[in-house]
Amino acid sequence: MLHIILNGCFGRMGQEIQEEINQNKELTIVAGIDRTQQEADFPVYQTLADVTEAADVVIDFSHDNSVATLVDQCVQKKLAIVIATTGLSENTKQQIDKASQMVPIFYSANMSLGVNVLIEALQKITPALEEDFDIEIVEKHHNQKKDAPSGTALLLADSINAAAEEKKDYILGRSGQENARSKNEIGIHAVRGGTIPGEHAVLYAGKDEMIELKHTALSRRIFANGALKAGEFLKDKKPGLYSMSDLLK
Ligand SMILES: NC(=O)C1=CN([C@@H]2O[C@H](COP(=O)(O)OP(=O)(O)OC[C@H]3O[C@@H](n4cnc5c(N)ncnc54)[C@H](OP(=O)(O)O)[C@@H]3O)[C@@H](O)[C@H]2O)C=CC1
Ligand SMILES: O=C(O)C1=N[C@H](C(=O)O)C[C@H](O)C1
């Protein structure tokens, strides 16, 4: 049985995780954390410091504002943590790196299998295309998403860059009348509307030909499943910073 503390328990992903856990007898939420208090099937607290229940892992889908403190408290309580929140500040990222020397931490901007297989495909094709093709990423999400561009778009760009011989700058959106595209950039474009759970398309545009690879999330369940698998993966792991590539090995 995996005992879980859920941070951001009343958010969209918090609710999705609750639904998934309700269908799995091997998983249980021992406590929730959120900044607003509502009724739930488990005790709810405002910070991890207040939680009295024992747990195997904390799962976090919240906001950058809450992550650095949460990670500190995981170190104090010697708790493993799965962090899925995107839009993290440099300060929070440094905090995560430091804390991962003391507790196991799993971080991924996208918990789906599909996006992580897409990353492998991008890393395979980029070396053959980078000389002659321009690379652009277009991501689409629901109208309530706070961070832009998405964490996944940045992860895809980082993965392309890691495979590319010549490192590329990121251009976040484009406007103006003077500057044509330079060869050495990846354009990243964020679209927001309706209830789109998440779509990421990577375009390689060359002379007279284009290749487009696209991942579409049809629901949030894929992210909930991935985060819960990551929680199980962390059980009994040594301190360290783990990612989807470790889980999929
Ligand atoms: N890695 C992945 O696969 C995925 C990552 N995400 C990421 O997860 C995060 C959450 O997404 P989503 O559930 O849609 O967002 P929501 O805004 O619906 O949920 C976030 C929850 O966290 C709460 N929260 C915000 N700030 C704090 C704080 N300082 N302390 C405690 N709780 C806080 C919010 O409260 P309030 O409502 O009061 O603001 C809300 O209940 C985002 O960063 C998103 O990009 C989402 C899907 C997949
Ligand atoms: O906020 C969301 O909804 C999502 N956020 C993640 C991101 O920023 O990449 C992952 C997924 O696309 C859904």
TrEMBL record:
Q: Which Pfam families does the record associate with it?
A: DapB_C, DapB_N
Sequence ranges assigned to domain Dihydrodipicolinate reductase C-terminal in this UniProt record: 114-248
- Positions annotated to bind (S)-2,3,4,5-tetrahydrodipicolinate: H142, G151, T152
EC number(s) per entry: 1.17.1.8
Q: Which residues form the Dihydrodipicolinate reductase N-terminal domain?
A: 3-111
Summary of subunit composition and partner proteins: Homotetramer.
Official protein name in the record: 4-hydroxy-tetrahydrodipicolinate reductase
**What is the native source organism of this protein?**
Tetragenococcus solitarius
Gene that this polypeptide is encoded by: dapB
